[in-house]
């Protein structure tokens, strides 16, 4: 029981650290995507332990992982297209008015 609450607190702390990195480091698109994936991983850990604690099936975690993979692929495709068109992933060099 104590390990379960420890995992809940650990996943919440991981999520808060991911939010802090997301807010503080917005220079490169790759670092933003990595912090978002870290936040998604901490949410997955939270949902996994919560569903196991309540005795529910783990099908929701499979759907959650599927959507997380789709989100990661979309982020990487945006990163690749941005690097191909602009040459780097700096947010300062990217302008919406040029597209």
UniProtKB/TrEMBL annotation:
The keyword Zinc-finger does not apply. One of its GO terms (molecular function) is NADH dehydrogenase (ubiquinone) activity. It is a multi-pass membrane protein. It is found in: Mitochondrion inner membrane; Mitochondrion membrane. Its EC number is 7.1.1.2. GO terms for biological process: ATP synthesis coupled electron transport. It comes from the Eukaryota. The keyword Signal does not apply. One of its GO terms (cellular component) is NADH dehydrogenase complex. It catalyses: a ubiquinone + NADH + 5 H(+)(in) = a ubiquinol + NAD(+) + 4 H(+)(out). The chain crosses the membrane at residues 6-23, 30-53, 59-83. Core subunit of the mitochondrial membrane respiratory chain NADH dehydrogenase (Complex I) that is believed to belong to the minimal assembly required for catalysis. Complex I functions in the transfer of electrons from NADH to the respiratory chain. The immediate electron acceptor for the enzyme is believed to be ubiquinone. Belongs to the complex I subunit 4L family. This is NADH-ubiquinone oxidoreductase chain 4L. It comes from Anopheles cruzii (mosquito).
């Amino acid at each position: 029981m104590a390990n379960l609450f420890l995992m809940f607190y650990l996943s919440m702390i991981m999520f808060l650290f991911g939010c802090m990195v997301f807010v503080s480091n917005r220079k490169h698109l790759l670092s933003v995507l990595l912090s978002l994936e870290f936040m998604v991983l901490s949410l997955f850990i939270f949902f996994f332990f919560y569903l196991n604690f309540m005795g529910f099936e783990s099908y929701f975690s499979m759907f959650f992982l599927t959507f997380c993979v789709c989100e990661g692929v979309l982020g990487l495709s945006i990163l690749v297209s941005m690097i191909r068109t602009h040459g780097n992933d700096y947010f300062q060099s990217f302008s919406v008015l040029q597209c």
